[in-house]
Amino acid sequence: MDVRNQRVTVMGLGHFGGGVAAARWLARQGAVVTVTDTADASALADSLVDLRGEPIAAFHLGGHREEDFRRTDLLVVNPAVRPDNPFLRTARESAVRVTSEIELFVEACPARIVGVTGSNGKSTTAAMMAVLLNATLGGNIGGSLLERVGDIGGDDWVVLELSSFQLHHLSAEARMPHVAVVTGCTPNHLDWHGSLAHYAAAKQRILVGQSSGDIAILNTRDPEVSSWQPLVRGGLVPPMPLADIPPLAVPGDHNRINAACAAAAALAVGCDAEVVDRGLRAFRGLPQRLELFAEIDGRRFYNDSTATTPESTIAALHSLTEPVWLLGGGRSKGFDFGPLAAAVVARARGAAFFGTVRSELLAAVTARVPGFSCMATETLDEALAWCWRQSRPGDAIVLSPGCASTDQFRNFRHRGKRFVELVAVLAGH
Questions:
Q1: Nearest one of 370, 358, 286 to 329, comparing CA atoms
Q2: What DSSP assignment string belongs to 365-394?
Q3: For residues 184 and 222, is the Cβ–Cβ distance under 8 A?
Q4: Where are the domains of the chain?
Q5: Cross-strand partners of 34
Q6: Which pLDDT band, with edges at 50, 70 and 90, does 163 fall under?
Q7: CATH assignment of 291-428, given 3.50.50.60, 2.60.40.790, 1.10.3720.10, 3.90.190.20?
Q8: pLDDT at 224 exceeding the cut of 80
């Protein structure tokens, strides 16, 4: 794409780096870039520092201006922008081309691309793939690769974790990954998508855009995803049998399923079986994904802040063998908490719920087992303090919220960082 002297609006600067990378890359390519965001300059201070000195034509912060969406040649939309956003509609009505940071990268990238998506497990599976293929990792995990595209060659591999938001915003002309991996599809982000059908359609976008020479790996253990086989236009490769997966350092059957998908993809593109085996054995997991990070007075502390769905928390509960005191809660994304409540009373010794859904979670658990050891608190700080008092040596205290973080934190990383800080205070005492 030649953007020299083109008017480009970057909608949504955000904090995760994609908006910053897109604005900087476009400006350096010679585009006339306007950055617009509903947040004000103080809220975006970290991102604005990253753009200091760059040739950005204008910053319109604290609210959008309609002319930025009508009088532009290209709109680069942040993945978090909802499909029904009126300014997005204005751009489309004005025949403005709409794209995204991830699509800009895919268009510019000369390498072979593996795309990984799924409601749960996509980050771990993508990270496993990057290890097995000695690939560059990016997308929804690890930040934008747009500014590194000049260092990537045609013989390289790139692994992109792709969220439903990113897939939804891909244009009809977008280049799809040569290898598509789908780890599962269960209800998620229904507050954004509006329905499970809309969410599933976004996930399926990774398949319907492929061509006959491409490869797809579907987690056939997932009932929803296994029904998507007719959508596959390229070669359909089954996950590796779980019996063939070597012992892993990361716990849980869900991680063995992630490994089965990653291994099948790696073998399908020519990776040696011994390399796959060795890579899986060496994989040590990702930060804030059921990460054991401390032990104090015989209690083991796990940071699983990336668990933003009930299914992720259920998987964590089933992965641990020691008695668990669960820290759960946050902001709901439209979930049914019944299955999570069942897992809590079956697998946990007790639970403290925080955030806006604390009362809903407490009611769901106590309705199943009246008198179950649990409580509702406003903050994570209070929830941890309660679990610490209730726990005994040999127990695990696990932050695995099962909900979004944005009622009290900037994002799940901020939530996990706060948990680690609170545990450090306990250690100091």
A1: 358
A2: HHHHSTT-SEEE-SSHHHHHHHHHHH--TT
A3: yes
A4: 7-99, 103-282, 291-428
A5: 9, 58
A6: very high
A7: 3.90.190.20
A8: yes
